[in-house]
Amino acid sequence: MALIDISLPKSVSKALNLPRKSPRREQLRVLKKLLKKARFTEFGQQYRFDEILLSRHLGKKFQEIVPTYNYNKIYNEYWHKTLEGKSDICWPGKIKYYALSSGTSEAASKYIPITPDLLRGNLNTMIKLVISLRNYEEIPVKAIGKAGLLLGGTTDLQKGTGYFAGDLSGITAKRMPFWFTPFYKPGKKIAKQKDWNKKLEEIVEQAPNWDIGYLTGVPAWIQMCIEKIIERYQLKTIHDIWPNLSFFLHGGVSFEPYKKGFEKLLGRPISYVETYLASEGFIAYQDGPGAKGMKLVTNEHIFMEFVPFDDVNFDGEGNMIEKPEVMMIHEVEEGRDYAILLSTSAGAWRYLIGDTIRFVNKANCEIVITGRTKHFLSLVGEHLSVENMTKAIQVAGEDLNICIPEFTVAGVPHGNMFAHNWYVACNDKADPQVLAEKIDAVLKDINDDYATERLSALKEVTVKVLPESAFMSFMKMKGKEGGQHKFPRVLKGKMLKEWEDFLAQGTDG
């Protein structure tokens, strides 16, 4: 029995709101639907949603009346009331689930509201993704009908006063439709396990009993799981135990640094499908093997706006100004970095999620994630993005024939000037000095600002090579082991101090 018939008739495609031709019209239709649903909430009354709905220029009126928000602002003004059990604050009804999200830099958890409407929209988007798999000729139809290993957070959620909180993956698995249950691995019992190491042990124990067709999760943790299975059963590759494994749905971080090491675990090539599923909603996915990036979901449950990520709209610490320049989807340009504002079916309104993206195909609404508003280095004007860093690591790894699955960078004082200290995970033999020279050369080639500053205030680039276990152990110490957690690409402030103290203790896992 197949998970879904991917040759669906047009009537079903229409019911699922599959993409039409005008992203602008689709987005305005989504905005109108959101405003109608939330017009009687406290937020909707405060910002005159009824008035916005009567306007001939819906999008512009919305931008004129409703201010932009970051997490602290919307939490302090509205979301804290939902945690106290109050209904109809930013979205109709009472919020019963919250995704705990600390990003990769902050210590305190953020409580992101999750509603049935949001989960329904995420599910519809997942179905669209599955339908799009017909565009991948190398993915056999039978693989889509096999079980999928979804490696996420625990479904044993934290119990609050009238609500539950946990990873979005755990909430999604807990509220999974009954018809999907037979295809879901590791199954509800193992998914409930809170201890990450015990969960992995139970997955390894059950692995021979499953016929896995695809994998879903953050690359680092999926790779660790596969390595443990191969080691336990003395396999050459994971295909010895899961011969039908054909594709990997990945997201959260760039897959390129992991690809070389990951493919050593395979008996044959598989397809990689990138997804953009944040705690705030399912934003985009790669809809074909030839796609330059991921296609934004413009017709479902999220209205998107775009703020140019530049010195005009953001300060030196990555904080957005109070009244930034904001564009709708038809106003953006290819090749320019933007921060995203989301308005969703869970009561996020003009909400800055912190990711930066770039349009690589405007006509098809295809984007790539370039980093985070606060995860970049610009000590002296070098404007180094996570995308730049990832490219440098990828090229260096290929040139030196080594695998670098994790890395992070810190900007530090160097006398009266500055330096970049790189920490890379590599279990292969690697010369730190040669690696530093390679990384530096690539960055000079792809980033003119960086090349200029290397001639002046940015005096040194250093590399410290560490075992991959050091990164994993640090994440475990921080309580961010497994699930959706990923290592920050840039370390600053308190997190940098903790990392330096951790390394000084000689802890490498």
From TrEMBL:
Chain ranges of the GH3 C-terminal domain: 387-492
An example molecular function term from Gene Ontology annotations: acid-amino acid ligase activity
All residue ranges annotated as the GH3 middle domain in the record: 297-363
Entry's Gene Ontology cellular component terms: cytoplasm
The protein's name in its UniProt record: GH3 auxin-responsive promoter family protein
Organism of provenance: Pinibacter aurantiacus
Lineage: Bacteria, Pseudomonadati, Bacteroidota, Chitinophagia, Chitinophagales
